[in-house]
Specification:
The complex is a heterodimer of chains A (about 290) and B (about 170). Chain A is of the alpha+beta class and about 290 residues long. In chain A, about 35% of the residues lie in helices and about 25% in strands. Chain A starts with 6 loop residues before the first strand and ends with a helix. Chain B folds into 2 domains: about 80 residues, Roll (Ubiquitin-like (UB roll)); about 80 residues, [2Fe-2S]-binding domain (DNA polymerase, domain 1, Orthogonal Bundle), CATH 1.10.150. The longest helix of chain B has 20 residues. Chain B starts with a strand and ends in an 8-residue tail after the last helix. Classes of the chains: A alpha+beta (about 290), B alpha+beta (about 170).
Chain lengths: ~290, ~170
């Protein structure tokens, strides 16, 4: 349970970090909070030659409202996500998910950018990134690009971030009047990885669903949007029949892996239950 | 092999400076280099909570932090809290209520209890259980630990309000 030997360098700018990675010929890892990385090093699931500490790069910090977008620096810690008033107001699904992310001590150190770039399919923040329709700002030696969340999560622990690239910030389109949202997860114990979890962001016009993003986690190799369930809601008022119609198709949206303890049929059942509760809650928000 | 790195940090109020390998966790640095063995290493993967320390005012896992990352930081271990007597009432309550058997998890429990009880108000038993969700105890079944923390919370609240005049008829 000890990491293999590695060299360590503390970067003070993004350019410095990117160059250190390149100089190490990609045999390197960035470390910020380290709450997911360090266990993988301890278990020797990976053993890079170099750790590049990005935790002291000022541009990766801070939460700012920029017009219709909220820019959240990648180094924003989970406990800050939990309490930040701008995030609560403009990207509320992150705030609602935060108490369910790991345990208090982990939240004191783990970062939002780290969680999203780690892309654990059972994690809350990657799925909420999808539900919020955020865009990810990624820096490379060639410059900066922005990738929509829908194109970001590619496979198990695989994202659009190429080796050596660095997630700089998360840009969230701010919620507006007419938006409703809800988050819930089913876990055996608070802080454990969820058996199934879901966040929903819906836009209503006169009680009719205009747009909706339903993002599940712990039901496949990436966080997943429930596209068929979303389709079942568009243009409809959220009554019991419409909710039931979405529940009827949501199982087909998900791709739970075989698991001795929570087999796919059980996960699909729990997802249906969860979707029903969340849509019921969203319907009541309009009352 | 890796290059040694100089680290300087404040531990329990004393500045320490050492040249260490980057792979050394803060937990191992505290226990082996500084011989502060009150911090325990259980799972060494951030699950059991026996290794919790205070880093710049916040409770973190010292097994999930490399000592080099903590260079420049202020660390307080269970020895520091104990010597400053800020957790004396929590330690007493744990003793009175038998909130430990083997005691391996206790340093982490005390850290979590200290962080929780440093917030204002009296936490509910639900709040206490939630705060303890990252601390494993394989002996007690937690009930006595929750009892002990709840007792300290109530005693501290009563103590803080004892000096304030009560409203008439309250």
């Amino acid at each position: 349970m000890k990491a293999r030997a590695f060299n360590y360098v503390k970067a003070s700018t993004v350019v410095e970090a990117l160059k250190a990675f390149e100089d190490a010929q990609d045999d390197a890892s960035y470390i910020a909070g380290g709450q997911s990385l360090v266990p993988t090093l301890a278990l020797r699931l990976q053993a890079p030659q170099l750790l590049i500490d990005i935790a002291h790069i000022p541009v990766l910090r801070g939460v700012d409202l920029q017009g219709d977008w909220l820019r959240i620096g990648a180094l924003t810690r989970h406990h800050e996500v939990l309490t930040d008033p701008l995030i609560r107001q403009h990207a509320p699904l992150y705030s609602e998910a935060a108490p369910h992310v790991a345990h208090p001590a982990i939240r004191n150190k783990g970062t939002l950018g780290g969680s999203i770039s780690h892309a654990d399919p059972a994690s809350e923040f990657p799925a909420m990134t999808l539900a919020l329709g955020a865009e990810l700002e990624i820096a490379s030696r060639d410059g900066v690009r922005r990738v929509p969340a829908d194109d970001f999560f590619l496979d198990l622990f695989q994202t659009a971030i190429e080796p050596g690239e660095l997630l700089v910030a998360i840009h969230v389109p701010v919620v507006r009047p007419g938006h409703r949202w809800a988050f819930h997860e089913l876990a055996r114990r608070r802080g454990d990885f969820a058996l199934v979890g879901c966040g929903i962001l819906a836009e209503f016009v006169d009680d009719v669903v205009k747009q909706v993003r339903i993002a599940f986690f712990s039901v496949g190799s990436t966080p997943l949007r429930a596209r068929q369930a979303e389709e079942a809601l568009i243009g409809k008022k959220l009554d019991q029949a419409v909710i039931a119609a979405a529940q009827a198709v949501v199982g087909d949206d998900l791709d739970p892996p075989e698991d001795e303890h929570t087999p796919p049929a059980m996960k699909r059942h729990l997802a249906r239950v969860l979707l029903g509760r969340l849509l019921g809650e969203i319907a009541r928000q309009g009352a | 092999m890796s290059d040694l790195v100089n680290v300087t940090m404040t531990v329990n109020g004393t500045e320490v400076s050492h040249s260490i390998a980057p792979r050394i966790t803060l937990a191992d640095f505290l226990r082996q280099t500084l011989e502060l063995t009150g911090t325990h290493t259980g799972c060494e993967m951030g699950v059991c909570g026996a290794c919790l320390v205070i880093l710049d005012g916040r409770v973190v896992h010292s097994c999930l932090t490399f000592a080099v990352q903590a260079s420049g930081a202020a660390i307080e271990t269970v020895e520091g809290l104990s010597d400053r007597a800020v957790i004396a009432d929590i330690q007493e309550a744990f003793h009175q209520r038998n909130a430990l058997q083997c005691g391996f998890c206790t340093p982490g429990m005390l850290m979590t209890a200290h962080a929780l009880l440093s917030q204002s108000g009296v936490p509910s038993r639900e709040d206490i259980r939630d705060a303890l969700s990252g601390n494993y105890c394989r002996c007690t079944g937690y009930e006595a630990i929750v009892d002990a923390i709840e007792k300290v919370a109530r005693d501290r609240y009563a103590g803080a309000n004892a000096s304030a005049p009560e409203e008439v008829g309250a």
